Amino acid sequence: MPSATEMICALGLKDQLVGISHSCTPPAGMGQLPVVTSCDINPGLSSQAIDDDVKAARESGASLYGVITPRLEDMKPDLIVSQGVCDVCAVSGALIEDVVETLTPRPALVNLEPFSLADILETFRLVGDAAGVPDRAEALITDAEARIEAVRRNCEGRGAPRTVFLDWVAPPFLSGHWTHDLLRAVGATNVMPNGGAPSVETTWDAVADMRPEVLIIACCGFDEARTRAEIAALPAVQAHLKRLEAAGCRIHVTDGHHHFSSPDPRIIDSLERLAEMVHA
Question: Is 72 exposed, middle or buried (0-12, 13-18, 19+ CB in 10 A)?
Fold first, then answer.
């Protein structure tokens, strides 16, 4: 998953990375690394079509993702980093566990399941320990904690605007997981009802009923340009956004793929960007 690739690079282990997922961007200067996962969803589909495919797969019990096991066998990795946060976004940890059982020699497996901002920092430690660089992980955590505290201090006394954060637009999804911690850290008033829970589907009428003063849109897996293109292709969504703006809501569209949806060191960059948007 992209967050694992970013974390490995942040720990100074870029040159030891031998494979990536289909969603990852190869680290700068390394060329194309072997891809060891696959996805049955066409990334070029609209957000509504992607949501339809995801729901159909859930109803049928089908897996959206696969592991290219022969490539893993050829690589003979010492360590595999997987995830258990969301089966919609990446290969599930359970699937990877099954694959690891078939590999010889059997690699170590670190399955990351961060839910909160504190959990994300703890994953730095888990990966650092597993990769034999615990001191680098502790340095990352120390830096992240200092930056989080700086954001909190800078946002004190700047007001607490009513804020809604969406990570999908058709249909709209109220963002969950660590998003609530990010909003708390920047002093926003989180008016979403799913605090402390995963993302949840909602309606645009329900969003309007929350009377947000600030609306953040960062679609999971989409960068800012893709999200803006998606909104531009959806007249109904545009109409809802115009009504919110007319009611005084400030709307910010930003990058979900590289920032807010990715539980890795970039989440601190996301927090700093969120502070600017909420208090613009």
Answer: buried
- Pairing relation of β-strands 108-112 and 79-83? parallel
The rounded distance, in Å, linking the Cα atoms of 16 and 233 is 42
In angstroms, rounded to a whole number, what is the distance separating the alpha carbons of residues 276 and 89? 27
* Confidence at residue 91, expressed as pLDDT on a 0 to 100 scale: 67
Helices (H), 47-133: 47-60, 69-75, 93-100, 117-130
Residue 14: DSSP 8-state: G
Alpha helices per DSSP H over 156-203: 179-185
Cis amide bond preceding 107, omega within 30? no
- Report H helices in 168-209: 179-185, 204-209
| pLDDT recorded at residue 88 | 59
Distance from the Cα of residue 242 to its chain's centroid: 27
Query: Which residues, in sequence order, are bridge partners of residue 20?
Result: 35
- Spatial separation of the C-alpha atoms in residues 165 and 155, rounded to whole Å: 18
C-beta separation of 208 from 244 below 8 A: yes
Over the chain (280 residues), what is each successive 10-residue block's mean pLDDT? 91 94 83 87 83 80 81 93 69 76 92 93 96 98 98 96 97 96 98 93 98 97 94 96 98 94 94 97
Gyration radius from the chain CA atoms: 19
DSSP per residue over 112-130, as a string? E---SHHHHHHHHHHHHHH
Q: Which domains does the chain have, with CATH numbers?
A: 2-134 (3.40.50.1980), 159-278 (3.40.50.1980)
Cα–Cα distance, 145 to 148 (Å, whole number) = 5
Q: Are the CB atoms for 83 and 110 separated by under 8 Å? A: no
Quick one: CA dihedral 92, 254, 265, 113, positive or negative? negative
Q: What is the per-residue pLDDT for 46? A: 87
